Amino acid sequence: MSLHKLAWTLPAKLHRTFPTFSIHSRLISTHHGVIQDVRGIMRKVPQPVVVVTTSKPDNIHDRRGITVSSFTSVSLEPDPLVSFCVRIPSRASELLHSSGNMVLNMLSHEQVQQSIAFSSPTSEQFKDIPFFDDPITGLPVLMGTVGAMHCQLFKVIELGDHELWIAKVLKVEQGVGGEHGKREESNPLLYYERAYRSIGDQVFMKAFEDDCEGSFNSIKWMHRAHLRMAWNYIRELGPDAAEPKIKQTLRSHFKRNPKKSQDYHETITSFYIALVSAAVRSYKGSEESDFFELVERFPQLLDAKTIDKYYSADKLYTDEARRAFVLPDIQPLPTHLQ
């Protein structure tokens, strides 16, 4: 029997001692409903994709970039102010605090690759990304953007698991060095009307799904990218409905990249779908977290030897296992992860 029903059946004296439970339950329910409503309406609001870049004052080679959320113009007078949000704790937050200065790069329609590069906490973010170091500030500026704002820290407010950065704009550069001289480079990269994801996952999934001509081979769609794609579909559709979608997406991807046509393996794919699903079930915060938190909590997702704990080589590396799913012979597929 629920607490709500129980409260109605208790004697009057006892009833007076329990009302907070019913009220608290309704408040939680209402709060959860508001969160879902906000998510729903924000899907319909187009927003620009912005990469904030910075570097250490005493070492310009210690650079960092981050694809941020909630970018907006705050005010124009007496000084132009803009804001953006940064997840904490993060290396980007630490470096921004260390520098106090940053460049806000407004990505163009053709810069999905840059969005992906700077939504991942890797040490080689700037590899193969066109940029230059500003001759005065030494800050990295991305090439091919709609424009860039050179900013200085005005105020930081910590809100939950994010920091709200308010920055003063010192200089604006319009259309920073287009790579191809095409009109499309002046159009901003936007996201909207998709299942709720972080900006990084929004553009990541767009790139993965739209990779019709293998144009993103340089990003190296390897194991980590496949896991991230699967994680997004599992969150959006649930494990059962996501499985055929994940497999269809991977088959199409391999087909469009002839050099990888021999890489698709039905049993390995099914195993990692089960592994990601188990991780999502095991982590209560997964609905509110991001992919990087998930792989940090469950490093076995990225460990190439994890599958060896479930399958022997004789069972896994066969034509039968490549063509169709076969059950593991060492231990059952995981349902939860430690």
The H/E string reads HHHEEEEHEHEEEEEHHHHHHH
Estimate the mean pLDDT confidence: 77
What's the helix count?
Answer: 12
Low-confidence segments, given as residue ranges, are: 1-18, 212-220
- Count of DSSP E strands? 10
By CATH, the architecture of the largest domain is named Roll
As for the number of domains, it is: 2
Which structural class do you get from the secondary structure elements? alpha+beta
Largest sheet: 6 strands, antiparallel, barrel
Strand order of the largest sheet: 2-3-4-9-8-5
- Output the CATH homologous superfamily of the largest domain: Electron Transport, Fmn-binding Protein, Chain A
Helix fraction, binned, reads 25-40%
CATH topology of the largest domain, anyone?
Pnp Oxidase, Chain A
Proportion of residues in extended strands: 15-25%
Radius of gyration (Å): 24 Å
Coarse morphology: elongated
CATH class of the largest domain: Mainly Beta
Termini distance? 32 Å
Structure description:
The chain is of the alpha+beta class. The chain has 2 domains: 139 residues, Pnp Oxidase, Chain A (Roll), CATH 2.30.110.10; 123 residues, no CATH class. Helix content is 38%, strand content 22%. It is built from 12 helices and 10 strands. The strands form 3 sheets. Strands 2-3-4-9-8-5 form a 6-stranded antiparallel barrel. It has a two-stranded antiparallel ribbon with strand order 1-10. β6 and β7 form a beta hairpin. α7 runs antiparallel to α8. The longest helix has 24 residues. It starts with a helix and ends in a 15-residue tail after the last helix. The relative contact order is 0.09.
